[in-house]
Amino acid sequence: MANLNKSGYHGLEEKLCYDRWHDKKEILTENALIIEGHPVMERWETPYMKIFASVVTRNGGRILECGFGMGISAYAIQSYCPTEHVIIEFNDDVFKRLMLFKHKAQNKVTPILGLAYETVLSLEPKSFDGIFYDTYPLNAEEQHTHQFY
Ligand SMILES: C[S@@+](CC[C@H](N)C(=O)[O-])C[C@H]1O[C@@H](n2cnc3c(N)ncnc32)[C@H](O)[C@@H]1O
Fold first, then answer.
1. Do 36 and 15 contact (CB within 8 A), yes or no?
2. Closest residue to atom 5 of ligand 1, CA basis
3. From atom 17 of ligand 1, which residue's Cα is the shortest distance away?
4. Which residues are within 8 A (CB) of 148 and not within 5 positions of it... i.e. 6 or more apart?
5. For the chain, which terminus, N or C, has the lower number of CB atoms within 10 Å?
6. Tens digit of pLDDT for each residue in 35-70?
7. What residues does each domain of the chain span?
8. CATH classification for the domain delimited by 18-143, as one of 3.40.47.10, 3.40.50.150, 2.40.30.10, 1.10.3470.10
9. Mutate-to-test residue for ligand 1 from 86, 95, 134, highest number of ligand atoms within 8 A of CB
10. Ligand 1 centroid vs 83 CA: distance in angstroms?
11. What is the mean pLDDT of the chain?
């Protein structure tokens, strides 16, 4: 796998590196999205992304998704025809692909560039029918509060 020098969540910086993540160039292959040497998303995860999509759209309506990645879950969510699909993404390169996704999508997509946990504060409380949170920890501290290993 190209430029992959960290596996799982190993090798995360101890402290905050938010700005760096924002600017970092992505390496996107058919099978993986790599940022800063981290395997942020991999194609083999498709089957369970599809299951998450079916669960998060169970009530129909307005869906919030945090972390666009390879867009695998986003495409799956679109197949359930949400009335609005709000997607928050923090990396610039990934966000550019999210904008392309928006223009091709069959249902309304609202991309937001920012950190999920900051951006949600500006969204209307209780306005979503389903929320799918799938970010990647940006430092070792976050790994233990947002993701578990
Ligand atoms: C695991 S991937 C998402 C995979 C996606 N579910 C898919 O099916 O392709 C995580 C994404 O979240 C983004 N991300 C990481 N931390 C974030 C944060 N705090 N707020 C918003 N996006 C974040 C990363 O840049 C990356 O694009």
1. no
2. 69
3. 135
4. none
5. C
6. 988 899 999 999 999 999 999 999 999 999 999 999
7. 18-143
8. 3.40.50.150
9. 134
10. 22
11. 89
